[in-house]
Amino acid sequence: MAKNVAQSTTLASLDQKLALAKRCSHEGVVAGAKAAVVASIATAIPTLASVRMLPWARANLNHTAQALIISTVAGAAYFIVADKTVLATARKNSFKHVPNMEA
Length: 103
What we know:
mainly alpha; transmembrane; transmembrane helix; Enod93; Early nodulin-93-like
């Protein structure tokens, strides 16, 4: 009986930690997606404008190069923001359960 109670308490604790981890990763995905959209727009406007206005860019940046520039910035923004969000959320949650240790 005591083993069952301890086992169910451990399973409940694991379920709670799993739910917290899922929420943490979901927040990271949402924040990363928002950052990728903003970065795409912020990169697409000057890239497309420079191809229209600058002779060097018109001669050297074809459609593939333009898409590569925009998608690289969007991907980098996604991963950087998602990683920072997950780490910040995990740090916040790990300090939430630590008792205050004053001497």
